[in-house]
Write a structure and sequence with these properties.
binds FE3-S4 cluster, 4-stranded parallel β-sheet, 42% helix, 15 strands, globular, alpha/beta, 14 helices, 5-stranded parallel β-sheet
Length: 399
């Protein structure tokens, strides 16, 4: 790797212990992936924030980086934490866990990381523009950034994202290079997709087919005339979960698609496959559902407005968590949506999500509109799942 004089200074420790450690991580990564140089990044998103995942060893590493003078050199935000920072008691989180989670957030804040605690940084002010180089962790956000925003990022892990934040750099390999962003397979969607759970089902079926084939293509998707931000975030989360994909192009929708030629090799997805994929994520009956959750990825303000409309004057009969970013919740507060939603008995689980919160075994079956949430609810928390449309999920909470 060719390093600039400033990068060499970072590596030699002239800018502090934390910057040296960060540069060592990036230098090693760049060497492994045969990067020729570093590129400056304008934005970073760090994952691995929940104390449930980090543990004491992870917290120790963060504390050492903060003690070593670590300071962000690019706009840096955080993935969901293991709890709602203001209302963890209301969600039944253990006080010991809460204390440790606060230590984690404090360590990040000391380094200048903005503790948004959301997997949709692009809805909360961390919105890079087309063509920029960034270093994001969080698979759904990475897929959204590369594909929908047209920025360039690899799928970083927690340590490499932190290293990028503390240096303002990332090694130039993978999706930072134009040749790796070209589509390698056309996916023709011969189905009507209107709602978030349809897009989640599409991500599942595509991801599973790619996994079975043993190759991870960059898909060029045609046949989808329109897709909202909410549908795209659902699709990105699902495709990244089931296929590990970090980039796709969607004809007429994503920015790079217009400049690209669809590959000849084509895979067609039919309506019945979408419906079958959605059905396969319903492994509980409605009567078994004791937990309802919306907000994987975190809800947008438009989704919260719809939720308030559906819940106004009604009362939920099940534990119902709404996961979103603190800035979105604050907008909901101002608009009166929060009061309507909380009056119904539903709860905001701001700053966190049902996968990173320590709730394993607390519920039997979860209803959601998110194919990604279904995957982790079962794999991590052992909840059975019911996948429905957004509005149907709300009805499930009211039954
Ligand atoms: Fe976000 Fe948690 Fe889902 S991080 S994408 S809400 S699993």
């Amino acid at each position: 790797m060719q390093l600039t004089p400033f990068e060499k200074e970072l590596l030699s420790g002239q800018h502090g212990r934390a910057a040296r450690k960060a540069m060592e991580i990036l230098d090693a990564l760049g060497t492994i992936y045969h990067a020729r140089r570093m590129v400056p990044v304008t934005s970073v998103q760090i994952s691995g924030v929940s104390y449930a995942n980090l543990g004491e060893a992870g917290l120790q590493f963060l504390t050492e980086m903060a003690d070593g003078g670590g300071k962000t050199r690019a706009l840096t935000t955080l993935n969901p934490a293991g709890m709602d920072i203001e209302n963890w008691q209301g969600l039944g989180i253990d006080p010991d866990f809460a204390r440790d989670q606060e230590r984690v957030l404090h360590a990040f804040a000391r380094m200048g990381v903005i503790t948004t605690c959301s997997c949709t940084p692009y809805l909360s002010g961390n919105l890079p523009h087309f063509g920029e180089h960034i270093a994001w962790a969080e698979s759904s956000a990475v897929c959204y950034a590369n594909s929908v925003l047209g920025v360039c990022t690899n799928r970083e892990g927690g340590p490499s994202a932190l290293a990028a934040a503390l240096t303002g750099l990332t090694p130039e390999y993978g999706f930072h290079l134009d040749e790796n962003r070209l589509p390698t397979l056309t996916v023709r969607v011969n189905a009507q997709l209107h709602e978030t759970h349809h897009f989640g089902a599409l991500g599942k079926i595509m991801g599973e087919k790619f996994e079975q084939s043993g190759v991870k293509p960059v898909p060029y998707i045609s046949g989808i005339p329109e897709a909202s931000v909410e549908c795209l975030k659902s699709f990105c989360a699902s495709l990244a979960t089931y296929g590990g994909n970090a980039l796709f192009h969607m004809e007429g929708i994503t920015p790079e698609a217009a400049t690209l030629r669809p590959p000849d090799e084509t895979l067609t997805i039919h309506q019945d496959e979408i419906e079958q994929a959605a059905r396969s994520l319903t492994i509980a009956s409605s009567s078994e559902v004791d937990f309802v959750s919306l907000g994987c990825p975190h809800l947008s303000i438009r989704e919260i407005a719809r939720l308030a409309e559906l819940l106004e004057g009604k009362h939920v009969t099940k534990e119902f968590w709404i996961t979103t970013a603190r800035p979105t919740k604050q907008t909901a507060d101002r608009m009166g949506y929060t009061k309507i939603i909380e009056d119904s008995g539903a709860k905001f689980a701001t700053d966190t999500c049902c996968v990173v919160a320590p709730i394993k075994g607390r519920f039997n079956a979860m209803a959601t509109d998110s194919a990604k949430a279904c995957y982790y609810a079962y794999a991590k928390n052992r909840f059975k799942t019911v996948l429905k449309s957004f509005d149907e999920v709300v009805q499930e909470a009211l039954k």
